[in-house]
Write a structure and sequence with these properties.
By secondary structure, the chain is α/β, with parallel strands linked by helices. It has 2 domains: 5-125 and 315-328, Nucleotidyltransferase, domain 5; 134-307, ATPase, nucleotide binding domain (Nucleotidyltransferase, domain 5), CATH 3.30.420.40. The protein is 43% helix and 19% strand. It contains 12 helices and 10 strands. The protein has helices at 40-44, 51-73, 92-109, 118-124, 127-130, 169-179, 186-194, 214-217, 224-239, 246-271, 287-300, 316-328; strands at residues 5-11, 16-24, 29-38, 82-88, 113-117, 136-142, 147-153, 157-162, 276-280, 303-305. Strands 3-2-1-4-5 form a 5-stranded mixed sheet, with helices on both faces. A 5-stranded mixed sheet has the order 8-7-6-9-10, with helices on both faces. Strand 6 (136-142) and strand 7 form a beta hairpin. Helix 4 (118-124) packs across helix 12 and helix 6 runs parallel beside helix 9. The longest helix is centred in the last third of the chain and has 26 residues, at 246-271. The radius of gyration is 20 Å and the shape is globular.
Length: 351
């Protein structure tokens, strides 16, 4: 008799409405369908995410996205065995829309509801690509709102080793992109320009890497000083009437960010005796970070796992994958009145 279970995942922490179906089997988790509707174009003219616009977009997209997911998988809601939804962290309005939809579905089909952690989902989605995690992994989750080092045991037991003290990596890229006059979001444009520039043209600072920072902030990140250094460098050239070499600035800035992220992560792996590194989050699509992580992991003898770019940005697959992980381990479901938490602790997998 088959013990397969079907998990529906719903993600609405920011501007993407993601719905996915994952089949949980005795061997692991298998993604059936992943559908994402984005409202990014509606926010671009504001230079950032507007929560009210995102919330309305989620309301409009939820039913069509859910219907498309079920249709592509060839199943009905009656076939779903559990519903997983992002409970936090994220924007309160968008989170509330997703949670309300998930609660309604769970009640309607009389199946368990799991309110899970968005950031941890960015790590666990890799199980859909490279298979179940080993007993212990290190995860670097980098996005517009997070730059976090997580030590993960048995997939669902999480220790936060470090985080950003100010700007997250993706946030710093967007701010520098705005400084350079690039369209929002700045990250992809800086990444593209960086491939054409010289990463050693300008020596920008590496935050929290001095010897004095190692005792208290060995696994923490800081990018606000780097952002300020780029601004001062650009302003000085503008004041002198010089043309700004966008490619070289982008490459040198991107190199500084990737250098800090990978150096601190490899050091954390060594300090905790971890042989597998999982990198996730929207910023993990950055080519400099991927290349440097690959080179440094190979040198250190650490297995590097980075999912394809389609799984790095926000999506329902990551939530369904984490829902499947907690379901497999027999964790108790969430209450149907589960709250959303915009600052949900990264050590909390499930509400």
């Amino acid at each position: 008799m088959s013990t397969d279970r079907l998990v529906l995942g719903i993600e609405t922490s920011c501007d993407e409405t993601g719905v996915a179906l994952v089949r949980l089997t005795d061997e692991g988790s298998e993604l059936l369908v992943d559908v994402v509707a984005s409202s990014m174009d509606e926010h671009a003219r504001f230079g950032g995410i507007i929560p009210e616009i995102a919330s309305r977009a989620h309301l409009e997209a939820m039913v069509p996205t859910l219907s498309t997911t079920l249709e592509r998988a060839g199943v009905t809601l009656a076939d779903v065995d559990a519903v997983a939804v992002t409970a936090g962290p994220g924007l309160v309005g968008p989170l509330t829309v997703g949670a309300a939809a998930a609660k309604a579905l769970a009640i309607g089909i009389d199946k368990p509801l799991f309110g899970v952690n968005h950031v941890i989902g960015h790590a666990v989605v890799d199980e859909l690509v490279h298979g179940p995690f080993p007993e212990r992994v290190m995860s670097l989750v980098v996005s517009g709102g997070h730059s976090s080092l997580l030590l993960i045991d048995d997939t669902v037991n999480v220790t936060e080793l470090g985080s950003t003290l100010d700007d997250a990596a993706g946030e710093a890229f967007d701010k520098v992109g705005r400084l350079l006059g690039l369209p929002y979001p700045g990250g992809p444009h800086i990444d593209r320009l960086a491939r054409e520039g010289n990463p050693r043209a300008i020596r920008f600072p590496r935050g929290l890497t001095a010897a004095k920072d190692q005792a208290d902030h060995a696994a923490d990140f800081s990018f606000s000083g780097l952002k300020t250094a780029v601004a001062r460098w650009v302003e000085a050239r503008q004041d002198a009437g010089e043309e700004i070499p966008l490619a070289d600035v982008s490459a040198s800035f991107a190199e500084a960010v990737a250098d800090v992220l990978t150096a601190k992560t490899i050091a954390a792996c060594r300090a905790h005796g971890v042989g597998t590194l999982v990198v996730g989050g929207g910023f993990s699509a950055n080519s400099q970070l991927r290349d440097m992580a690959a080179a440094r992991c190979e040198e250190a003898g650490i297995e590097l796992r980075i999912p394809p770019i389609r799984y790095c940005t926000d999506n329902g697959a990551m939530i369904a994958a984490l829902g499947a992980a907690v379901l497999r381990r027999g964790m108790a479901p969430s209450n149907l009145d589960l709250p959303v938490d915009s600052s949900m602790p990264l050590t909390q997998v499930l509400v």
